[in-house]
C-alpha cells in the first residue's frame, strides 16, 4: 500500500475525476479530506465503501478562494485526521463564451474556481508542508494550458495560470522537500460537447486524433495522480505530465486511424 498513513486533501470530490481519484488512492491506504459541494450526498456510496475499508474520511464544503476557510479546515483536520501529506487540486470548471461577448463575471468565476483556488490551497497547505519538510502537491490541469479551446478562453487562461503556479511553487517549496507537479489531462468521452466551438475543429472526430483511436478515462488520470502522490515520483518536481494518448500531436485528419463503427 503506497499511501498507507497518508492524508489526502482533494479539492473537488463530486466530479467523475474526483471520484476516480479518491477511489484509486483509497485502494492504496490513503485517508481523506474531501471537498464536496454536495456535502457528500453525490458520493455517498463511495464514502461508505472507503470508510468500510478502514480509511478515515472528513467531508467539507469550502470556499477554496477563502484563505481563512481553508486555514480553519486544516486546523480541524490536523486534530481529527492529521496533517495533509498530499494536496490534489482538481477544480475544473468550464463555461462557453467568447472574448467579444463574455462578461467580466464569467471571466472572474472561471479564474477564481480553477486558478485562484489553486493558489490559496497551495499557499495554505504548502506552507504547512514546508514546515514539516515533506509533502506532495498535484494539480490536475488540462491540455488547454497549451492549446486554446476556441470556446472558453478563461478556462484556457486559468489552466495556463496553474501551469506556471506549478513551476513557481516547485521552485520555492522544493527547497523544503515538497514536490509540486501538474497533469495536463486530455480528452475523454463527452469533451466534444464540453468544448463545442464554432471556431476550432479540434474536437471534430476527436477520438481518431488520438494515435491509437482510443480515448482515455478518469481511471487513467487517477493512476497518474497516484504515481505523483507516491514515493515512486521522488525525483519529479515542477513537471507538467501530459496524459492525452498523444492527442495534441495530431497532424493531418487524412492520416487518422479510423476504426470500424
Automatic annotation (TrEMBL):
PROSITE patterns named among the record's database cross-references? ADH_SHORT (PS00061)
What broad class of enzyme is this? oxidoreductase
Tell me the InterPro entries matching this sequence: NAD(P)-bd_dom_sf, Sc_DH/Rdtase_CS, SDR_fam
Keywords, alphabetical: Oxidoreductase
Q: What molecular function terms (GO) are annotated for this protein?
A: 3-oxoacyl-[acyl-carrier-protein] reductase (NADPH) activity
As recorded in UniProt, its EC number(s) are 1.1.1.100
Signal sequence range: none
Source organism, top-level taxon: Bacteria
Which family does the UniProt entry place this protein in?
Belongs to the short-chain dehydrogenases/reductases (SDR) family.
Protein name, as recorded: Oxidoreductase, short chain dehydrogenase/reductase family protein, 3-oxoacyl-(Acyl-carrier-protein) reductase
- What species does this protein belong to? Thermobacillus xylanilyticus
Q: What is the lineage of its organism?
A: Bacteria, Bacillati, Bacillota, Bacilli, Bacillales
Amino acid at each position: 500500500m503506497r499511501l498507507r498513513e497518508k492524508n489526502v486533501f482533494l479539492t473537488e470530490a463530486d466530479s467523475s475525476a474526483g471520484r476516480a481519484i479518491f477511489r484509486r488512492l483509497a485502494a492504496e491506504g490513503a485517508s481523506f479530506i474531501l471537498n464536496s459541494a454536495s456535502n457528500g450526498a453525490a458520493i455517498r456510496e463511495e464514502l461508505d465503501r472507503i470508510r468500510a475499508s478502514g480509511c478515515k474520511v472528513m467531508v467539507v464544503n469550502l470556499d477554496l478562494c477563502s484563505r481563512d476557510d481553508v486555514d480553519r479546515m486544516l486546523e480541524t483536520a490536523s486534530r481529527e485526521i492529521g496533517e495533509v501529506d498530499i494536496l490534489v487540486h482538481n477544480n475544473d470548471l468550464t463555461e462557453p463564451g467568447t472574448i467579444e461577448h463574455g462578461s467580466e463575471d464569467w471571466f472572474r468565476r472561471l479564474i477564481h474556481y480553477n486558478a485562484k483556488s489553486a493558489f490559496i490551497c497551495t499557499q495554505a497547505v504548502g506552507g504547512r508542508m514546508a514546515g514539516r519538510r515533506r509533502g506532495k502537491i498535484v494539480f490536475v490541469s488540462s491540455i488547454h494550458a497549451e492549446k486554446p479551446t476556441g470556446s472558453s478562453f478563461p478556462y484556457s487562461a486559468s489552466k495556463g495560470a496553474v501551469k506556471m503556479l506549478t513551476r513557481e511553487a516547485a521552485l520555492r517549496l522544493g527547497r523544503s522537500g515538497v514536490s509540486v507537479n501538474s497533469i495536463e489531462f486530455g480528452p475523454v468521452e463527452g469533451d466534444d460537447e464540453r468544448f463545442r466551438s464554432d471556431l476550432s475543429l479540434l474536437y471534430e472526430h476527436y477520438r481518431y486524433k488520438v494515435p491509437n483511436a482510443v480515448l482515455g478515462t478518469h481511471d487513467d488520470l487517477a493512476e497518474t495522480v497516484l504515481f505523483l502522490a507516491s514515493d515512486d515520483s521522488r525525483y519529479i518536481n515542477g513537471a507538467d505530465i501530459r496524459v492525452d494518448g498523444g492527442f495534441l500531436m495530431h497532424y493531418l485528419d487524412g492520416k487518422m486511424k479510423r476504426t470500424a463503427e
